[in-house]
């Protein structure tokens, strides 16, 4: 699971 | 970045611009659900708080700023500048029935019990149902202006393209986010009957009217 920092999608 | 996500973002941007121009040019927000627009402003605000904490790219930051700016500008036009043309009687969906369950679900089902992550999860769940007041309003009035149907088509298409983006990222980047995918499927499914009407009526030059 990706943390918020790596949320690269809009 | 892949072609599905880029076209998805551009479709989303097109929808936001179409709506803003429709209201601004016609100086009227007839047929537009102000409640849905408030929900979208909440979705963007709770999702893009990371603008303050992390920088990903110029594209990412500029799109987020544009989305938030347009969302609040649209809400301002509906509830302030052109409020005389706001059809509050038909915009009667009880949004608390959306916000409260979505808020509860975000606290219960998320990837990480942290403030920003719960807000992000809340915004993902809320976005999947944020269009319901608008679809409900169209079902009550029984019709929609053609420009509004184009807005809805672009808005529905954007998350459908994101579904393709997630399939692409699963195979090529072994990335997947179950919360975003499930909410994206729900969101796209909610547009299905509208898509059917749009393709069978609006694209054939007819006006979108529902059997009253």
TrEMBL record, chain B:
Membrane-topology annotation of the record: Multi-pass membrane protein
**GO cellular component terms listed in the entry, alphabetical order:** COPI-coated vesicle membrane; endoplasmic reticulum membrane; Golgi membrane
Looking up InterPro entries in the UniProt record yields: ER_ret_rcpt (IPR000133)
Where, subcellularly, is it found? Cytoplasmic vesicle, COPI-coated vesicle membrane; Endoplasmic reticulum membrane; Golgi apparatus membrane
Citing just one GO molecular function, the answer is:
ER retention sequence binding
Top-rank lineage group of the source organism: Eukaryota
Membrane-spanning intervals of the chain: 65-82, 94-113, 119-138, 150-172, 178-199
Q: Does the keyword Chloroplast apply?
A: no
Question: This protein is called what?
Answer: ER lumen protein-retaining receptor
Organism, by scientific name, is Cynoglossus semilaevis
